[in-house]
Amino acid sequence: MDIETLDLEDFNITQEHLRDIDLLEASIFEKIRRDCDLSESQDTDSEEVIHVPRKRRRIFITSDSETECDPVEKFVTENIPSLSGSTSQKWVEPKGHQPSVIAFTEPTGMKEPYASQLRNAAQGEYFSLMVPDNIFEEIAVQTNLFAEQRERSVKPSSRSHKWKPTTKDELKRFFGLILYMGLVKLPKICLYWSTDRVYRQTFPPTVMSRNRFEILLQNLHFTNNETADPKDRICKIRPLIDKLNENFVKHYGPKEDVCVDETQVPFRGRIIFRQYNKSKRHKYGMKLFKLCTIPGYTCKLQLYA
């Protein structure tokens, strides 16, 4: 007989047989449950019983003598007049050796005669005070020097051979364009001189040509490479930072409250002291430490390198 064709009717199983099978299963499960309960009770009895020691009761003996008192209370009563009720304490000037506090008497704010000269001045005059013409003149000297040094090492077909010496006035226009590019951002520098109506800008072509801007950007220098200290990582801009710090302190006196803060200048170029900070909006950049005073004036800055 094929197994797949078997049916209950082939075994002649009645309803009474099914009830007997159910009762047998119930009795087996009940026996298993009792055996489990019995084994658990035996395991519990075999475990060691830990007796918690009884807490000792402290007995306080009170003194019968009314004249006895706590020695601490007696000492406090005798040495603190306010508790004994004899006199009342008053604030008095300290006596004896006291640390001397030096009063802050330095002049703060814009120093004279700059304060009176710039009382109603425009923003450009304040900028010229912190970044005077002698800084632009020094940049012009170093830029012209580097262009001459670079001209000897480039190919004859390079446009560096068409270099014309720059001046402080031209460098002012150059840095003005850089500030403008920080406000009006385009994907590439060449697009500021583009004639496409999507990118067309009217201001940069009136300042200087694109070729002149690019060649100035290539030769821009702040120090002489031949005399710079190779051990100093920021020797290329060290003279500029020192001059700015000198002017910051020269023209403005910090207030009594100062703080040291840090800021990150966004930069993704290749430089050894580039920092990464995942908590900043601009994660890559150069870190600056600044000594600041009220109302946010930078007295000194230092580049972390």
Helix content: 25-40%
Mean pLDDT: 82
Oligomerization: single chain
> Largest beta sheet, briefly?
4 strands, antiparallel
- Can you count the beta strands? 6
- Kindly estimate the percentage of residues that lie in beta strands according to DSSP: 5-15%
Protein name: Jg1004 protein
Pfam family, one: DDE_Tnp_1_7
Domain PiggyBac transposable element-derived protein: 125-304
Q: What can be said about this structure in brief?
A:
By secondary structure, this protein is α+β, with helices and mostly antiparallel strands. Among the domains are: 126-219, no CATH class; 238-303, no CATH class. It contains ten helices and six strands; from the N terminus they run H-H-H-E-H-H-H-H-H-H-H-E-E-E-E-E.
Description:
- The chain is an alpha+beta fold.
- α6 (133-151) packs across α7.
- Helix content is 39%, strand content 10%.
- It is built from 10 helices and 6 strands.
- Strands 3, 4, 5 and 6 form a 4-stranded antiparallel beta sheet that branches.
- The chain is flat, with a radius of gyration of 45 Å.
- It has helices at 15-46, 71-79, 81-84, 114-117, 123-130, 133-151, 168-183, 204-207, 210-219, 238-251; strands spanning 109-110, 252-253, 258-266, 275-276, 284-293, 297-303.
- Among the domains are: 126-219, no CATH class; 238-303, no CATH class.
- The mean pLDDT is 82.
- It starts with 14 loop residues before the first helix and ends with a strand.
What's the SSE blueprint?
Layout: H1 15-46, H2 71-79, H3 81-84, E1 109-110, H4 114-117, H5 123-130, H6 133-151, H7 168-183, H8 204-207, H9 210-219, H10 238-251, E2 252-253, E3 258-266, E4 275-276, E5 284-293, E6 297-303
Antiparallel strand pairs: 1-2, 3-5, 4-5, 5-6
